[in-house]
Design goal:
single chain, alpha/beta, five-stranded mixed beta sheet
Length: 185
């Protein structure tokens, strides 16, 4: 068995200008909760690191912690107190697994945007991920995945599905009788 070392044991101090948001975070935080997050960071400091992965250019892209990052970007007092740096842990994942990590982190905590979830599902399907992979790695059930696909309205999301007709209409042809339902002129 390979020894696993959780990323939290290797927290790094990273300048915020080396960190960027990802384009697929479906989590939304209402203004009152953002104000509370600011107050929490102001009073207690950063108690949880920002979860990132390292890009090829050496920068860090956020998997989890966007709103903690946003607090520092928005509030000069936090920026100055922290010396413009955030606590970061790095996970090593390919892009599909990074999306799954972001969603798992967010779904475990709160609400997220349906529109962004639809986009993520589409990106994963377009990237070759099976429904089974999406269900297992994103933490949703079959019905939820189907609903997200249906909301998208994109045929491409159903390309690997075999659908049966629920009912069929049979049209009988009577070549000896043609009905004329027209009104006389």
């Amino acid at each position: 068995m390979t020894k696993f070392n959780s990323p939290v044991y290797t927290v790094m101090r990273v300048p915020i200008d080396q960190i960027q948001a990802n384009a697929y975070n479906p989590n939304a935080v209402a203004p009152p909760e953002m104000a509370l997050l600011y107050k929490s960071i102001l009073e207690d400091g950063y108690t949880m690191p920002i979860v990132c992965y390292r890009l090829e250019n050496g920068k860090f892209e956020i998997v989890d912690g966007f709103h903690r990052y946003k607090v520092m970007k928005k509030h000069q007092d936090i920026y100055e107190r922290e010396g413009g740096c955030l606590p970061v842990v790095v996970i090593e994942k390919d892009i599909s697994n990074r999306m799954a990590s972001t969603i798992r982190h967010n779904r475990a905590r709160g609400s997220h945007s349906i529109e962004l979830m639809v986009n993520i599902v589409r990106d994963l399907v377009d990237g070759g991920m099976s429904d089974a992979w999406i269900i297992k790695n994103i933490g949703m059930d079959t019905d939820e995945l189907l609903r997200l696909k249906q909301i998208s309205g994109l045929q491409s999301l159903f390309v690997d599905k075999d659908f049966n007709r629920a009912w069929m209409v049979e049209i009988e042809k009577d070549t000896n009788h043609v009905a004329d339902n027209s009104e006389p002129v």
